[in-house]
Amino acid sequence: MPMKAVFQRRLQKLKHIRGVQQPVFSLICMLLGISFTVWFTLLLVFIIVPAIFGVSFGIRRVYMKSLIKLFEWATLRMERGAKEKNQHLYKPYSNGIIAKEPVSLEQEIQEMRRGSAEPEFDMSDIFYFCRRGVESIVDDEVTKRFTAEELESWNLLTRSNYNFHHISTRLTALWGMGVLIRYGFLLPLRVTLAFTGVGLLVVLTSIVGLFPNGRMKNYLSDKVHLMCYRICVRALTAIITYHDSENKPKNGGICVANHTSPIDVIILASDGCYAMVGQVHGGLMGVIQRAMVKACPHIWFERSEVKDRHLVAKRLSDHVADESKLPILIFPEGTCINNTSVMMFKKGSFEIGCTVYPVAIKYDPRFGDAFWNSSKFGMVNYLLHMMSSWAIVCSVWYLPPMSRMEGEDAVQFANRVKAAIARKGGLADLLWDGGLKRGKVKEVFKEEQQKLYSKVLVGSSEDRSRS
Amino acid sequence: MGSRASSLLREEDIEEIKKETGFSHSQITRLYSRFHSLDKGENGALSREDFQRIPELAINPLGDRIINAFFPEGTNKKYTAREDQVNFRGFMRTLAHFRPVEDNEKNKDLTSGEPLNSRTNKLHFAFQLYDLDRDDKISRDELLQVLRMMVGVNISDEQLGSIADRTIQEADTNGDMCISFSEFTKVLEKVDVEQKMSIRFLH
């Protein structure tokens, strides 16, 4: 009997509590509903609608300016912290560790010979090779292009911090807030936008694909592509400045640009319409590729076809010959470089013989490093890094079109274009192959060095025999 | 993605390396970052493959000899844990040979009375590039091999042989048909070794 009474009393208590909680519960539901609606409306008004029409409110630029001020303040605090503890702050030197003298092999050896009566070989000849070798161990031009660039000031991302022990509590708090904002607010927002952008791309291009070929279809395809890429740009919070838009690539040409990351495609394609070139992938990429090609002709190669250089060249030239088709977008380096230099351009795209429109892309590393180190990080990991950075800030320069000149072969033309891009973007112009990221350097370069030295040796003996 | 290498190097280590090699604090941290970026296996030591991955070194005709100079004979525990690996101290010790000579050098090497970047030590470094079997003398064979590395296939065996013979004739003073270190030093006494075997490290 007492049990029943206790039980009944308990039930009444619960009903009372529930009665109180009922309005609280519905209040919470209402608040969630309202916040969702507000959020989506804001998203639509501030991000998606401008993307459709290609306008910008300028919010991202204000954001960028305030971030710069924040980073400078953070670096000052760290310097102050280091000074107080009387320790040294690690400062990456963008000028390099050593100062190399640009003396060639011949110059150096002539210098050393000058004192003596020109013997054929001197034991001191070894000094040149020795010094050059050790210089390259300390600082070489190639290996540092395949890792992320080091920054002068800290941008509140752990991944680019070298001075852990100099962070004060205030700075740590700021960093903590930064983490919250980036992972709690920016990342979900960006992921939503990314899914929206990609989803719309697939759906809308498939719809456009149903239209009959003609002007209407091309017009719609252009609009659809532009809109979806613009949404993707906002999904990365990319703040892009386009220069010299009068040189934008036109139909029947090839657009070449330096390559830092897969995002380059989104950056260029949100400002103009291009025909993409690439290998056929499976999975999500494959779905996107198949949908895109329905709306306008892109060039996708099967894995087996990529090896056949003639086939590749033929497809590219056929596409270029058709004036109604969009300009092709190609990255001749063949791999991602860390945006401090431009490496060897593969000559394939320069053999086709059409107008080349060079484009230089330079990222500002302070807000987020866009370089994809494909040997260290996979694609998903990379995208996550991208979407949890502060922003991607870059400048795009459209250079005036270039064509192959008389008496110039494909390699020379490629080097000329490369030099122009490097100059405009403020990047180092290197002759080294981007393939050195994974492969070994060819023996022929060592043989060239040996030939040079032999010429110095044998050359002096020829002079001797003449005198 | 950004090197945290400087935080892995302890202050005591930096001080010891400073005393032994004469590099400044910032130079040591900078070089440690470089060491770390070359160390693909991330095990705190460099192997020969790590060096060969540098393209400019791979095309240097004497690249292999230079790499060899970083791996001293025997296993001095301070510099190498295993025979085919060199740790940061060993790396710095070899690089120290290329520091420019300053007039008022006060620091001394712990084991010998001379700093690592003295003229004698620089010459000794170059001598070791020639001396393949590390027996403290350069034989005709060794000289031929090194010459062959430097010229590749562009010069005939006879011509190379006569170059080697002439060089040994000019340098050899005690008639043993080999070049010892003192004979080597004598031949190069007029050469500005300090300048040719120095690298300008920025502060």
Automatic annotation (TrEMBL), chain A:
The chain crosses the membrane at residues 42-59, 167-185, 191-211, 382-399. One of its GO terms (cellular component) is membrane. GO terms for molecular function: glycerol-3-phosphate O-acyltransferase activity. Residues 253-364 form the Phospholipid/glycerol acyltransferase domain. The keyword DNA damage does not apply. It comes from the Eukaryota. It is found in: Membrane. Pathway: Lipid metabolism; Phospholipid metabolism. InterPro entries: LPCAT1-like (IPR045252), Plipid/glycerol_acylTrfase (IPR002123). One of its GO terms (biological process) is phospholipid biosynthetic process. Belongs to the 1-acyl-sn-glycerol-3-phosphate acyltransferase family. This is Glycerol-3-phosphate acyltransferase 4. It comes from Cyprinus carpio carpio.
UniProtKB/TrEMBL annotation, chain B:
One of its GO terms (biological process) is protein transport. GO terms for molecular function: calcium ion binding. The keyword Transport applies. The keyword Lipoprotein applies. Keywords: Calcium, Cell membrane, Cytoplasm, Lipoprotein, Membrane, Metal-binding, Myristate, Nucleus, Phosphoprotein, Protein transport, Repeat, Transport. Residues 26-61, 118-153, 159-194 form the EF-hand domain. GO terms for cellular component: cytoplasm; nucleus; plasma membrane. It is found in: Cell membrane; Cytoplasm; Nucleus. Belongs to the calcineurin regulatory subunit family. CHP subfamily. This is Calcineurin-like EF-hand protein 1. It comes from Cyprinus carpio carpio.
